[in-house]
């Protein structure tokens, strides 16, 4: 029996990490990470490669189990063994760096797979939905294309649309533009900005500093598995710690 | 050189040849379907089964891949006889060929599974698909599409290899040929005709697999590229 998600008052954050610890073997990757993501807000996680950003994100969607601490996502107590994983994944959408559209399916089939298989949505309705989410990412004309016929940016937008089709309450993005040619990142970032404007709760790991600054309600700077600095986007302009100053300064 | 070929006495036996060809095709079809199913199950067993199951699947695959088909056929034939099971030569042949091609199919499908990267699987999980749904939609279907050309080659090879079952007198094409040549004393002509029939059977199977591929893999039909 999994406990019912706690009733969502407007005050509950969509995502809460409290003192999260996670090691891979002897490698301590998350060392007491805590932060809240209020509903309808955008949090960007920045930090050097290896600082634990992806791991933190993956813990939120239970792709990694944590060793200690608590994670609550839309009322789901992610750290508990009794977690209803399916219910969690219905509320959370995640998009990875490598655009993982299923190669043997068209864009439309990619999108309708989960709504029909998981939510048992009728096919016609799911097709209608596919059209809607593709319009949202500006990819309507690629409905019947296969992933290999798309550019990286189009594939990534397709992956975002596929995630949106499940109507998640929270979206997680892990460096979704890092694998793209520079001229293709803009089209993907624009889609994410539009989602933010529409009020989607989002946590995104990014290396695009200007983008992070522009979109974030909250910036989490991770350093050696800890939240080293946290605050509004303004902290990027006036860092309180030397590490963040250095990080922002090098533009990495 | 005095090459004196006379095909007439061989061609007179065309009804037997046709029967033999049909039996060969029948053996190939049975082994393809049953061996294909066994292969997929064993590939899943090896990838996701408990350690005992995975080990058993591996022993099966390695055992088959490292012994001659003819010996496997005799093992099935005499093995079943020794436990008192008197099955027809045809049944034994179908069984042995199935066991044989099942092992090769396991290896091919397993390679297909390994070609699916972890990101694909996590994408499926992230969308809320159940483990079984991920297995079916994200792993099995694209894996099979990817290895389909290797699978079909294997099945055609199996059809050709089925000629070995003439050794236990399964009434397939080669057994018919052996009979005709000893009857007519026209060995060379007989085997020329039989070789040509095997070529035709290969082409028929390849055409069949091509058609099936077009039917079940829409991506392949539309793009014509390997996955
Ligand atoms: N599945 C894993 N197994 C072992 N070590 C891992 C695994 N995932 C990440 N790590 C290690 O954890 C550390 C942090 O990784 P990650 O969270 O990916 O950092 P970031 O996303 O900030 O670059 C790295 O040292 C990485 O090698
Ligand atoms: Mg990372």
Automatic annotation (TrEMBL), chain A:
It is found in: Cell membrane. Residues 15-249 form the ABC transporter domain. Coiled coil: none annotated. InterPro entries: AAA+_ATPase, ABC_ATPase_HisP-typ, ABC_transporter-like_ATP-bd, MetN_ABC_transporter-like, P-loop_NTPase. It comes from the Bacteria. Its main location: membrane. Keywords: Amino-acid transport, ATP-binding, Cell membrane, Membrane, Nucleotide-binding, Transport. SMART domains: AAA. GO terms for molecular function: ABC-type amino acid transporter activity; ATP binding; ATP hydrolysis activity. It holds the Pfam family ABC_tran. It is a peripheral membrane protein. One of its GO terms (cellular component) is plasma membrane. Belongs to the ABC transporter superfamily. PANTHER family: AMINO ACID IMPORT ATP-BINDING PROTEIN, GLUTAMATE_ASPARTATE IMPORT ATP-BINDING PROTEIN GLTL. This is Amino acid ABC transporter ATP-binding protein. It comes from Enterovirga aerilata.
UniProtKB/TrEMBL annotation, chain B:
Keywords: Cell membrane, Membrane, Transmembrane, Transmembrane helix, Transport. NCBIfam families: HEQRo_perm_3TM (TIGR01726). This is Amino acid ABC transporter permease. Belongs to the binding-protein-dependent transport system permease family. HisMQ subfamily. Pfam families: BPD_transp_1. The chain crosses the membrane at residues 20-44, 74-97, 191-217. It is a multi-pass membrane protein. One of its GO terms (biological process) is amino acid transport.
